[in-house]
Backbone:
């Protein structure tokens, strides 16, 4: 099993450009999450999807949109990238219910110039 | 204010020392409390989790949760250089199913 797969691994964008980060999991998990990680800031929740068909804002949703395409896939879109969105982005998934282990992808390193 | 606050560190200890890592949280709906370990340029991996208040031990690691004071702790006994990593506390639960992390503490265990 691949677990949680994120694409791309690296990306450089110019200010104002748009892009979509893709995430897919093959563990039949219900809940999926997008985080960004910046030095000294830990993992900050951007958006999450508790189950297929639902999405909710997290701690830092401004400048982002998400789509839960189906149970496997949860994408994150930057409509107009800004230098402040330079970060490492992680996707994670958990099975139904609280307390279950979250599995993370390998991360996407995004630089906005 | 973050719902989960963590002592930022960094923390440097000699090999064999006892390490104490601490977090607090503000959302009473959280029921599950976790510690993740993250090595450089990797995604976090679950180390331990605890449901509600109490202690949980796994080898050299002990996780404690005190819901009355909203305090989360991780103790590492006989620390090893291989324990050097960033440790992140996390809280999960309630109607929203949010999973919120602290800022992480970078631990360095010196041989």
Residues:
């Amino acid at each position: 099993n691949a677990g949680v797969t994120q694409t791309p691994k690296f990306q450089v964008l110019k200010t104002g450009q748009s892009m979509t980060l893709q995430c897919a999991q093959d563990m039949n998990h219900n809940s999926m999450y997008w985080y960004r990680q910046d030095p000294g800031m830990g993992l900050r929740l951007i958006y999450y999807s508790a189950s297929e068909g639902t999405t909710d804002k997290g701690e830092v949703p401004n400048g982002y949109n998400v789509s839960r395409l189906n149970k496997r896939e949860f994408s994150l879109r930057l409509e107009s990238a800004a230098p402040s969105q330079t970060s490492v982005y992680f996707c994670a998934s958990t099975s139904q219910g609280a307390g279950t282990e979250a599995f993370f992808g390998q991360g996407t390193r995004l630089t906005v110039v | 204010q973050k719902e989960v606050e963590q002592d930022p560190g960094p923390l440097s200890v000699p090999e064999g020392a006892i390490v104490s890592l601490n977090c607090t949280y503000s959302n009473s709906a959280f029921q599950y409390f976790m510690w993740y370990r993250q090595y450089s340029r990797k995604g976090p991996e679950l180390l331990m989790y605890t449901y509600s208040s109490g202690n949980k031990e796994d080898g050299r690691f002990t996780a404690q949760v005190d819901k009355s004071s909203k305090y989360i702790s991780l103790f590492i006994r006989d620390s090893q250089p291989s324990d050097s990593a960033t440790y992140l506390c996390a809280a999960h639960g309630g109607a929203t199913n949010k999973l919120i992390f602290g800022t992480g503490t970078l631990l360095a265990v010196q041989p």
